[in-house]
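Table S2 (continued). Query chain:
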Amino acid sequence: MFLHEVFSPEFIKLDLEAEDKDEAFEELVDYFCQSEKTNIREEMLAALREREAKMSTGIHKGIAIPHGKTNAVDTIRGVLGISRRGVDYDALDGEPVYLLFMMVTPQKDSEKHLRILKRLAELLENPQFYIDLQAQKDAQSAYKVICKYEDVLAAMD
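Corresponding output:
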């Protein structure tokens, strides 16, 4: 499974309005539930909060990867949130985050979960990925950036 499968255009939310981490979780989960026309809001929030309680997922300058596991989903699901103002996230570096790659995975899919996190970490090693993604004005363009950088990675594998 690739990032472009998890973060397709309908699961990319630009102009995130949240000001803090909990608001961001709620906004991203609500966006997912509305897009999917499902009501697994509480299960998703619980999974994200449980993981976040262990250590902040604000792991890289301006970037957070909130993630968790729940059997409320049958495959890896996610929403990319792009904030223009920044989210007070209690990140490890103390700075606000602007890109939030939210993912939830079924309990049984630990291997896929780790592969997706690894792929994302590989993309984030390239600072231009962050710059290009944040510059996008619509979900389709942001999706194309993800695909472009994943294609570059695939060519190097």
